[in-house]
């Protein structure tokens, strides 16, 4: 959990409950332990078998899916932390052998300046010469990174994470303002938040977010469960109410 908070979106964490609990039982347990509310994901389905004889056990994968480390995380905390830091630095740095002409583009990416990063890479590509192919591939890579974030916004909207979706969209809109590729999409998504229907949805989502934040801090507290139940009754048609109902069921 501490690593999820420290590294944020730079680190993908998938925690697997592998002792027979249902998804609902596992989620209820995690809320009770105050393990929710960060970037870590929980599942009851093993993505692959590590062959480990006991628990706890971990596998650390590289950016390209290669196994970097595996074993007991309690005995390898320092090594895990160092390996993660090195892999994040690698992901934010130009690939080995990348032309020096793309240094500005990669530096902009490190600072989250997607528009500058893409424009710098395209500028090198337009010049032609021996770096043009690498520059085109780099620009395409950067565009794909932005598109993945826009896809994330759409997923959040579809799954009633409205507050988080709006925050991410605002950040992306600023970071891509100079790139025509994304203007139509960001404008379309922004229009959804400006609609009359969405205003009511956002009010409910913000009210739910305040309760959920306390739930992350205090766990499945009876008073918070009662607040959630009142929220459900007051907002029967809101998209976020489904998430609230699920949490209420954990207190039953």
3D architecture notes:
The chain is mainly α and 252 residues long. The protein has 3 domains: 2-91, no CATH class; 100-194, no CATH class; 197-250. The protein is 62% helix and 6% strand. The chain has 11 helices and 4 strands. A two-stranded parallel ribbon has the order 1-2. A two-stranded antiparallel ribbon has the order 3-4. Helix 10 runs antiparallel to helix 11 (241-250). The radius of gyration is 22 Å and the shape is flat. The model has no long low-confidence stretch (mean pLDDT 91).
Keywords:
252 residues; 3 domains; two-stranded parallel sheet; two-stranded antiparallel sheet; 11 helices
Query: Can you list the strand order of the major beta sheet?
Result: 1-2
pLDDT < 50 stretches = none
* Class by SSE composition: mainly alpha
Q: Give the fraction of residues assigned to helices.
A: 55-70%
**Radius of gyration, rounded?**
22 Å
- The structural domain count equals 3
Which overall shape is indicated by the principal axes computed on the Cα atoms? flat
Total number of beta strands:
4
- Tell me the major beta sheet: 2 strands, parallel
Q: Summarize the helix and strand pattern as letters.
A: HEHEEEHHHHHHHHH
**Beta-strand content:** 5-15%
Please report the distance between the alpha carbons of the first and last residues. 26 Å
Number of helices: 11
Q: What is the residue-averaged pLDDT?
A: 91
